[in-house]
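Bumping my old thread because nobody answered last time. Still need a sequence for this structure:
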């Protein structure tokens, strides 16, 4: 049985809007607007336990997964939401053993998801231009992952070039992804996948234009993912009154072997 240990990070869940990832440490406690949670009361309990605090409010205690961390890590700019991260992974063909370049690292929210998908036989090379983001991501990744053996972090502007060859996918979350298209074509394996995430129409128009030049890339598509949760209650099931609508546009394309045709 998987038990909560002193020093573990645990997702403390009250409801969809009130949940927190906290490091559980003996002798400490967590204060909420629904009362205090004493960590000594949950150490040794199985993950998935439902426990009441002294205010008689029930909380759930779960092992955090990648999507939980993506919401909680945060960053100075817009995060890539789990709904978009899932679309990126599927449409970029990322799987166990994949070699992936990412830029920019930001808080490391997408980096930690990619690292878990590619597994120990794959590798994620992540580029970040801002030193403050780089340091924050280092701290966050050490917190989330057991080890960082399949992640290489680089404090470097990817627009100056990509160091790695024979890549399966390149994923860009940056202001000017079109500037990386020539580097991506050189470094992706044949049929390797270019993916970019941008908040505005103008950005994706420039990116698609760069991808179509000289027929360097094919199978170009742009998508947007909207997520609406359904509140399920007996006799009154309906959509919730809020939803995660536009967060970003995603462009995907596959490298053509011969761009001179």
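Sorry it took so long. Here it is:
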């Amino acid at each position: 049985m998987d038990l909560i240990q002193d020093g573990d990070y645990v997702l403390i869940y009250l409801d969809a809007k009130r949940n927190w990832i906290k490091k559980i440490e003996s002798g400490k406690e967590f204060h909420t607007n629904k009362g205090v949670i004493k960590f000594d009361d949950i150490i040794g309990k199985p993950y998935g336990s439902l426990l009441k605090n002294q205010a008689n409010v029930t909380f759930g205690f779960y092992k955090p997964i990648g999507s939980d961390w993506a919401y909680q890590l945060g960053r100075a700019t817009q995060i890539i939401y789990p709904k978009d991260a899932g679309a990126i992974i599927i449409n970029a063909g990322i799987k166990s053993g994949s070699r992936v370049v990412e830029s920019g690292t930001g808080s490391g929210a997408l980096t930690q998801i990619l690292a878990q998908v590619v597994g120990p036989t794959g590798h994620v090379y992540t580029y970040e231009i801002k030193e403050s983001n780089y340091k924050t991501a280092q701290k966050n990744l050490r917190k989330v992952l057991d080890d960082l053996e399949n992640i290489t972090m680089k404090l470097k502007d990817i627009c100056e070039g990509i160091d790695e060859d024979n890549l399966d996918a390149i994923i860009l979350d940056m202001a000017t992804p079109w500037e990386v298209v020539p580097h991506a074509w050189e470094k992706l394996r044949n049929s390797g996948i270019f993916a970019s995430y941008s908040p505005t129409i103008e950005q994706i128009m420039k990116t698609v234009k760069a991808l179509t030049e000289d027929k360097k890339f094919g199978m170009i598509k742009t998508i947007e993912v909207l997520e609406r949760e359904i509140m399920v209650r007996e006799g009154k099931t309906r959509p919730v009154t809020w939803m995660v609508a536009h967060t970003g546009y995603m462009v995907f394309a596959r490298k053509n072997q011969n761009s001179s045709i």
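The chain has a mean pLDDT of 93. Let me know if any region looks off to you.
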